[in-house]
């Protein structure tokens, strides 16, 4: 009988411990971090492969050759964008960890575990700096989303022309890279609808795959925008509550 009572008390204590641990979790910050990681991973992974597919299309069907080292051409710019993607992935991996740490330490449920504490001036400055950084990242991802929509629009037009080859069969439409600023005015790099290269490009897997990869990269950038907006909202709310109620009991659980 006593053993059963001890087991019941132990199980009750374990249950209370689990409930307390779940109460400590900053759910809104956790949601923003997971969404941020998912969006950045989607953008970086799909964007990297889409850039590689773009380089393959330019070299195989538009006969774009790599310029000398001292010249900045479209293929070199693609390589630079790939390195930028590597930096973005590493930077936001660290930022996601900092976002979770900030969420844990501004969660009011921590007080139940570690006792009373008061927010200091240094803590308020760190929170304000983190809010400003998050807002800057939000604006940056808005710009990235707008920039990513450009290749999506361009590939959508090309993909639509390829899907309607019978409609444009009589017309002489050409895809000229000079219109997109990818080559200089003196270089003529174009593919017309009636040419063999055009049909090969439309039938290839590179065009369809690259288009859909850019669409996925755009979706990832949009997810990162939503994550930044959510994180900024959470940080502002927690900072206001911690600043205004630092002398009283608060429990944000954000």
Give the gist of this structure:
This protein is mainly alpha-helical and 254 residues long.
How would you portray this structure in words?
The protein is 73% helix and 2% strand. By secondary structure, the protein is mostly helical. The model is unreliable at 5-9, 109-117 and 249-254 (pLDDT under 50). The chain crosses the membrane at residues 21-43, 83-105, 126-147, 211-236.
Question: Helix-strand pattern, N to C?
Answer: HHHHHEEHH
Gap between N and C termini: 43 Å
| Strand order in the sheet with the most strands | 1-2
Count the beta strands.
2
Return Rg in Å: 27 Å
User: How many alpha or pi helices?
Assistant: 7
Low-confidence stretches: 5-9, 109-117, 249-254
Q: Strand content of the residues, in percent?
A: under 5%
Mean of all residue-level pLDDT scores: 80
Largest sheet: 2 strands, antiparallel
- Overall structural class, as computed from helix and strand content, comes to mainly alpha
The backbone outline, from C-alpha atoms, is: elongated
User: Helical content, roughly?
Assistant: over 70%
What's the structural blueprint in terms of helices and strands?
Layout: H1 2-24, H2 27-60, H3 74-105, H4 110-114, H5 121-163, E1 174-176, E2 190-192, H6 196-203, H7 205-244
Antiparallel strand pairs: 1-2
Subunit structure: Interacts with OPRM1. Interacts with palmitoyltransferase ZDHHC17/HIP14; the interaction leads to palmitoylation of GPM6A.
Keywords: Membrane, Transmembrane, Transmembrane helix
Protein name: Neuronal membrane glycoprotein M6-a
């Amino acid at each position: 009988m006593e053993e059963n009572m001890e087991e019941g008390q132990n199980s009750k204590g374990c249950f209370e411990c689990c409930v307390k641990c779940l109460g400590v979790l900053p759910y809104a910050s956790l949601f923003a971090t997971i969404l941020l990681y998912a969006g950045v991973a989607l953008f970086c992974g799909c964007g990297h492969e889409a850039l590689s597919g773009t380089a393959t299309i330019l070299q195989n069907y538009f006969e774009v050759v790599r310029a000398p080292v001292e010249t900045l051409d479209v293929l070199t710019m693609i390589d630079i964008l790939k390195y930028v993607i590597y930096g973005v992935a590493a930077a936001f991996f660290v930022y996601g960890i900092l976002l979770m740490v900030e969420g844990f330490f501004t969660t009011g449920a921590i007080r139940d575990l570690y006792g009373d504490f008061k927010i200091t001036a240094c803590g308020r400055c760190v929170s304000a700096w983190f809010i400003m950084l998050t807002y800057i990242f939000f604006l940056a991802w808005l710009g990235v989303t707008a920039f990513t929509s450009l290749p999506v629009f361009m590939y959508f037009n090309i993909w639509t022309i390829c899907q309607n080859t019978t409609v444009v069969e009589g017309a002489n439409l050409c895809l000229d890279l000079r219109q997109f600023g990818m080559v200089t005015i003196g270089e003529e790099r174009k593919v017309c609808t009636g040419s063999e290269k055009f049909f090969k490009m439309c039938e290839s897997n590179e065009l369809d795959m690259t288009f859909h990869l850019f669409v996925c990269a755009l979706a990832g950038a949009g997810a990162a925008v939503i994550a930044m907006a959510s994180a900024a909202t959470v940080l502002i709310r927690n900072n206001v509550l911690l600043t205004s109620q630092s002398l009283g009991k608060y429990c944000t659980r954000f």
